[in-house]
Amino acid sequence: MYYTYLLQSLKDKTWYTGYTKDLKERVLIHNKGLNFSTKSKRPWKLLYYEASIHQKDAKAREKYLKSGMGKRYLRNRLKHQLAEGLSPVRVLTTLTLR
């Protein structure tokens, strides 16, 4: 299984989109500062993820979510939590990170 994911920096509220085979481990890597492009904006909170069976599908989805239309999709996808006055940081997922 491959995962396309959206993180939000708790430091400056920016979003980061990526894909991985091991979502739990990847979020830990981001938060440990082992990823050059995200280490300065730690800590990160997982906001959203999708699962795909094929790597090519996850990679294509990552590319889409990084586009203008993809960002609009994500804002729309999370709009109910935002409409209730919740910060995107407080959006819960079914994945428990330890």
SSE topology:
Elements: E1 2-9, E2 15-20, H1 23-32, E3 44-52, H2 55-66, H3 68-77, H4 79-83
Antiparallel strand pairs: 1-2, 1-3
Helix pairs in contact: 2-3
Brief rundown of the structure:
The chain has 98 residues and is an alpha+beta fold. The protein has four helices and three strands.
> Which ranges are low-confidence, i.e. pLDDT below 50, for 5 or more consecutive residues?
88-98
Distance between the termini: 20 Å
What percentage of amino acids are in beta strands?
15-25%
Q: Can you tell me the number of structural domains?
A: 1
If classified by CATH, what would the architecture be? Answer: 3-Layer(aba) Sandwich
Question: On the 0-100 scale, what is the average pLDDT?
Answer: 86
- The CATH topology is GIY-YIG endonuclease
